[in-house]
Amino acid sequence: MPIELYFPLLNGGIEQGLNDAGIETFEGEFQQHIVRECTQNALDARFPVGGQVRIELQLRQIPVTEIPGLADLRAAIRSSREYWQGNEKTQAFCAKALSWTEGPEIGVLEVADYGTKGLDGGDGDRNGSWFGLVQSGGVSINQDDAGGAFGIGKKAPFAGSFARTVFYSTLNRGGGRAFQGVATLTTHLDPAGRKTQAGGFIGLVEDGSASCSSIRDPRQIPAPFRRNETGTSLFIVAYRHLGGADWVDAYIREAVENFWPAIHRGSLVFQIGDRRVDTATLPALMARFSGDPDFSSRYYYRAVANENRREWQTTLPNLGSCRLYLVSGDTTYPKKVCMTRQIGMVIYAAQRFRSYRPFAGLFICDSPEGNAYLRKLEPPRHNEWNASRSDDGPEAKRVLQNVRDWINQCLRELNPDEDARESDVPELNRYLPDEDDEPLADDSQTARERGGEDGIVTAPVSQPLIIQEVPPRPPVRQPAPGGAAPEDGNEEGDGVGDATPDPGDTETESPGGRGDTTGGGATGETQPRQIKTLLQTRSIRTGSDTYELIVRSPAACSGRLNLVSVGEDNKEEPDLRITRVLDMGTGSDVDMDVFAVAGGQTIRLRVVIESTVPVSLRAYCYGN
Predict the structure, then answer these.
(1) CA distance 114 to 178
(2) What is the C-alpha separation between 268 and 221, in angstroms, rounded?
(3) Partners of 563 in the beta sheet?
């Protein structure tokens, strides 16, 4: 039987366009998702248990004569273009797919795993891993401690193909082989003029059969796709590559950033082109990428590689055995913890822990039961632990809160002097959000995923920023000329950080300075007074020069916003050079001369300053 591309008939079903939800999930950053999805599936299939897995990525040019079903694929693409003539996106896709599948050779990216047991099960075996990866959709194979389960993540490789076509080839421990291709296009007309489904298979089709079988005879598997060692290979046809060697660097970066914990402990090795990524080369690669401000993995890597690191172990409810590594002492540390499971893939970076001193950390859940529990809290991208994904949300939230509490406890042990530095402003806690309201808050998602700014966890304010007039208040009594005390006998300090002001406190000032009753001239004319209100604030450093500032005022105030830095001695440093202030609720820049906050309103600001030295921010509103 010849190898053909077969699309099942639609038979009255729903017509399918180009927008496949699974593939669209991984569009854009497809290189990252190919690395994450293929590697975690390989780690799940590791054999022997505890052995080392090797992932190889090679970009090859394969002659068109050795790619089975290619003529059928091009015919199906042309039929899709004809069927969806009014759809611009489909027209553009088909034109590009046809251009990348013509010529004597086609670019194919092979992602191969070694040190694994391969895929088992025959066609239609719903409990087999071959069926789960290749022959089903929307089906997860239950593996409690697995990194993935052949769910929606298996769509990631299709996002890297201009033709949305992937071949699978496996050789399992029992010597069994399997080979088949999958194409995901659109509903179109087959050569007989019948409507088809969008998904098709490349394999063996018997005359009159309504199915396509995988190829099990090694003699029928084309040579470029034939495995010689146990494991599985994916071949991404018409790979989205524009030439040059940059594809190697791109995948090395993704391998390091997403799997450095597994690489560091020696359980995972990458061979990308002619470059090797392993325990020996990891330090140099970390240093190489450290010049990129978006490459934060270098900080978390120090939590296990730095000689001054600290390690903790504990047993947590529902999660079992867990480990935590922490390091401090560098002002550039992000005050975040890299969260991982036993397979060693980075899930996300958790933030908002209680520590004045910068730190970086790595959390690992080691137990099989804990890995199974946490995996159920992860979305298809495996980039967060979300309690709302559990059938028992409140219980899951408690589990995650236990993790946070333990990390905070370890931070107190890491920096025991910090308890003495904590101070509470009376009544402030009831106005500001609780640090524990968002267990293990995550800022690892990109701006595109969140719809916000990079590196900032956004939250809309409860009402829009408004401008309103503040009724004038009677001025406070000023010292008499010559320094005499006011008639009421109350003395006033020099105003240079002698005491911590209370949020909501107000005082009057002249535009030119504090306590002046006259201008600089000799006329003695009284300058207009301003009401200075200390706003309730909490600042969170989210980058080397960037802060999230949470601002709240008990009463409405409007006027000029003034930000100052506060030193450890509680003295204010007014010479704070500010580059940008952004309202995180609206996404617009803030005019600091026309600022307003309603009574009881909370506003989140993104503040960028010129200095990279960590500071604490304080905010005042100067109103007339």
Answers:
(1) 16
(2) 29
(3) 619
Task: Give the tens place of pLDDT for each residue, 274-309.
Answer: 999 999 999 999 999 998 988 999 999 999 999 999
Q: Distance of alpha carbon 459 from its chain centroid, rounded? A: 16
Q: Give the side-chain half-sphere CA count within 13 A for 119.
A: 32
* Contact status, residue 308 vs residue 591, Cβ threshold 8 Å: no
For 384-435, what is each residue's pLDDT tens digit?
999 999 999 999 999 999 999 999 999 999 988 655 444 444 444 444 544 4
Q: At what angle do helices 246-264 and 297-305 cross, to 10 degrees?
A: 30
- Using alpha carbons, list the distances in angstroms from residue 335 to 116, 308, 330, 357: 37, 16, 10, 8
Region 55-65: mean pLDDT is 97
Tokens of 219: 């003699």
Count CB atoms within 10 A of the CB of residue 136.
16
347 backbone dihedrals φ, ψ, rounded to 5°: -90, -55
If one counts every other C-beta atom within 10 angstroms of the C-beta of residue 520, the result is 8
* Separation CA 482–CA 452 (nearest Å): 55
CB atoms within 10 A of CB 44: 20
Give SS3 for 105: strand
Q: Which residues contact 328 (CB under 8 A, 6 or more apart)?
A: 355, 357, 358, 359, 360, 414, 415
* Edge-first strand listing for the sheet containing 105-114: 3-6, 199-204, 177-184, 165-171, 231-237, 105-114, 53-63, 268-272, 275-277
Which H or E run includes 593? Answer: none
In whole angstroms, give the CA distance from residue 476 to residue 459.
Answer: 38
d(CA 552, CA 541): 18
CA atoms within 13 A on the CB side of 440: 29
What percent of the chain shows pLDDT beyond 70?
A: 78
Q: In what order do the strands lie in the sheet with 578-583?
A: 536-541, 546-552, 602-609, 578-583
> Can you name the residues that pair with 478 across neighbouring β-strands?
none
Q: Which residue has the tokens 């450290």?
A: 290
How many Cβ atoms sit within 10 Å of the Cβ of residue 126?
A: 11
pTM of the model: 0.70
Q: How confident is the model at residue 372 (pLDDT cuts 50, 70, 90)?
A: very high
Give Dmax (Cα) for the chain. 109
Angle at 260 between CA 255 and CA 266, to 5 degrees: 105
By the 8 A CB rule, do 40 and 345 touch? Answer: yes
Q: Dihedral (C-alpha) 298, 304, 307, 309: value to the nearest 10 degrees?
A: 100
